[in-house]
Amino acid sequence: MYTLGIDIGSTSSKAVILRDGTELIVQKVVSLGTGTVGPSQVLSAVFEESGLSPDQIGYTVSTGYGRMNCAQADEQVSELSCHAKGIHFLLPDAQTVIDIGGQDAKALKISESGQLIAFQMNDKCAAGTGRFLDVMARVLNVDISELGELSQRSKKPVSISNTCTVFAESEVISQLSSNVPIEDIAAGIHNSVAKRVAGMALRLGRPTAPAMSGGVARNAGVVRAMERELGCPVLVHPLCQSAGALGAAILAWEKLKKEKVN
Ligand code: ADP
């Protein structure tokens, strides 16, 4: 039996199809979020690649900021539970999940079976989110996918003193005009995000076996900076950005199984 998970985020849409809750058939990410053609594009992409048709899907769960705007979904579930489930599937040893997306950051404490136990969240301020990094990448004239590698060449990271994204942007422009090496600015930007998010995660206690999920986990510069802030290795899976959609597909499977039993 096939289940579908779709994560409609602020900046991207992700979809995953699973067979019997365990076998990953296909996963796709489209860099367009809620209110755009992103959700329909990502659904077309997973059906095209898998060769499945929508009527072969037994149950669909949507998650993410735009989860209510998904006509195909049988049920909507919050990102918190979906990221917990998805990361537990990808990285069973993880006990803390740090999810940094396009417009918020969350830290989750999860049980040995992948259930959410506690969480902390920042959705009030762009600092410490993907949006902050996207704005800075634009100022540096670098593609977001290259920012991580660039920062790793830094020998002397700058300190970004402003936490507000707008002021930090002016600070970066001023550093650029003072000919500060771009890799040192990139490293300073990553340190600023990691410091802010690690501070939030530490409110749940010192993390054991932390993992990162969400699109920002694809940025190796932020991951290394997070490791320095937390003082321990951080687990990252190549499918980190699809963890929410994967968790949604697993929850859809659990729902189907329950319906079969009743
Ligand atoms: P949302 O679910 O809110 O749409 P995501 O979890 O998809 O957010 O994360 C989006 C963020 O991920 C972007 O704001 C960007 O900073 C980052 N990101 C996306 N793709 C990449 C990439 N290839 N390399 C590094 N960072 C990326």
Mean model confidence by pLDDT: 96
The sequence of SSEs as H and E is EEEHEEHEEEHHHHEHEH
Order of strands, widest sheet: 3-2-1-4-5
The CATH level-2 architecture of the largest domain is identified as 2-Layer Sandwich
Full CATH superfamily name of the largest domain: ATPase, nucleotide binding domain
Name the bound molecules. Answer: adenosine-5'-diphosphate
Radius of gyration: 19 Å
- Strand tally is 10
Classify the helix fraction into a percent range: 40-55%
Strand content: 15-25%
**Classification by helices and strands:** alpha/beta
Q: Using the coordinates shown, work out and report the CATH topology of the largest domain.
A: Nucleotidyltransferase, domain 5
Number of individual domains? 2
Number of distinct helices: 8
Distance linking N and C termini: 17 Å
Largest sheet: 5 strands, mixed
Give the low-confidence spans.
Answer: none
Q: Return the CATH class of the largest domain.
A: Alpha Beta
C-alpha geometry: globular
Topology summary:
Blueprint: E1 2-8, E2 13-19, E3 23-30, H1 38-50, E4 57-63, E5 75-76, H2 79-90, E6 96-100, E7 105-110, E8 116-122, H3 130-140, H4 144-151, H5 165-177, H6 182-201, E9 210-213, H7 220-230, E10 235-236, H8 243-261
Helix pairs in contact: 2-8, 3-5, 3-6, 4-6, 6-7
Residues 9-12, 33, 64, 101-103, 130-131, 133-134, 144-145, 148, 214-216, 218-219, 241 line the site of adenosine-5'-diphosphate.
